Amino acid sequence: MKAHQARRFLAAAVTGGALLALAAGCAPSSGDDDGDETPTSAAVSDDVAGAGDVTLKLSDFWGSAEGEWIDSMIEKFQTKYPNVTIDRTTEDWGQLNSTLNLQLQDSDGPDIASANNGWQSLGTIAKGGLVLNLDAYADLYGWNDKVPTTIARQNQFSTDFSTIGTGSWFATPLARASLIGLYYNVDKLDALGLQPPTTLAELEDAAAAAKAAGEIPFAYGSSDGGTSVLLGVQATLADKDSLNNFIYDDPDVTADDIALTEAATTVKTWADDGWFTPSFEGVDYQTSVANFLDGNGVFRWEYTGSLGLAGDQLNQFGYIQLPQADSDSTVGVGAAPGAMVISANSEHPDVAAAFLDFLMSSEASQAAVDVGLVPMLNGDVTVPDDAFSLAGESKATATLDADDGYVPYIDWASPTLLDTITQNMQLLYAGRATPEQFTAAVEADRAAFLEQLGQQ
């Protein structure tokens, strides 16, 4: 995962069109056309030790703590199975996603790779027959029971590739997560005499109190995007199933059904009330992060991991996943930081699948926590006492795991939707578009993509 998620989304939007063109122009047809690319339950095995000497090539984009995590998982897997060697190659996130299609067509390419979810990357390489249908391995390892449905759907497509979020497994998640949630400055909240908010209403009360005390309620900048505040608020207001189904291209669900107008109205009101960083329209992402870390702001909606908290900062900031405004359940925008795929050219798919299963294990979650990353899929992790923000993040994923409460990033609904949202948020803040017009623009973008898919 990139250091900050805004860049991740922008790269996805830029590379999506190129990937689709590559798939149309030079990818082989889907394995479902001839029936011999999809392994059956009887044909797969979990006997890694009996596979003989195996070398797997792994291509991913993880650096820093994420790189430490995957290196530790490779070492653990190789210790468990001395007959297996995993040869890891690391590339820049944008470079990997722009070339993965071609890499997977190469007979000497990776056996395993980290793809981006959604139509921009995973859907393209799956439709092109470049990666394996993993249904047989899902049955073998029990992924349908192990993985929350809302996370499993992020890795699934119908076998005719007309629908995302249902059907067959073409990738797997990891035992760690990337979320959108609410960070807060512990000392500033204490100075205001306030407890961490537990509802959206309490957050608004706290923001009003912060403003009255001369503090900046929300550290924020929107000059180069800044969608986390909108998506974070939307997750507290929207029906989980409707939001998932909208993103997964259900034509019966429209942008009017996912609390988008309500969320846009809320953030516009916050902006008009002066709750954002002064002149936030001209503040870029990196500056707004630095402002928050320097104490200029009580709260910040942000992607986990993007603040780069370390050392004493882990106790200077807390993290909250707010529950739904009208129920006790919790819904959060979140996904694994990568969709793990097995190349259709791999000579050792059974061993590759065993490694993917290992990356979803309790051991993998604890290894994530040990290097300061957010775990997922497994709640039985031990968080260090001196990592307050990580404790909040880990609690959030445990809650979302239990509530099956994940929703994917809304821009997955079409390759161009991120640009549409970003551009129309600027118009919204400038008073040149109403919340209703903002929602209409989102609906028009997605409807055009559904038409391309033949669903409208």
* Helix-residue proportion: 40-55%
The mean pLDDT is: 90
Strand content: 5-15%
Query: What is the N-to-C order of secondary-structure elements (H for helix, E for strand)?
Result: HEHEHEHHHHEEEHHHHHHEHEEEHHHEHH
User: Over the alpha carbons, how many angstroms does the gyration radius reach?
Assistant: 22 Å
What structural class do the secondary elements suggest? alpha/beta
The count of DSSP E runs of length 2 or more, i.e. the number of strands, is 11
Termini separation: 34 Å
Quick overview of this protein structure:
The chain is of the alpha/beta class. The protein contains 19 helices and 11 strands.
Could you describe the 3D structure shown?
α1 runs parallel beside α3 (93-105) and α18 packs antiparallel against α19 (435-452). α2 links the parallel β1 (54-60) and β2. Residues 1-36 have low confidence and may be disordered. The protein starts with a helix and ends with a helix. The protein contains 19 helices and eleven strands. The strands form three sheets. Strands 6, 7, 8, 9 and 11 form a five-stranded mixed sheet that branches. The protein has a four-stranded mixed sheet with strand order 2-1-3-10. It has helices spanning 5-26, 64-80, 93-105, 119-127, 135-141, 143-146, 149-152, 186-191, 200-212, 228-237, 240-247, 260-272, 285-293, 313-316, 349-358, 362-370, 388-403, 417-429, 435-452, and strands spanning 54-60, 84-90, 112-115, 156-157, 168-169, 178-185, 299-303, 317-320, 332-335, 339-342, 406-407. With 456 residues, the protein is an alpha/beta fold. It is 45% helix and 11% strand.
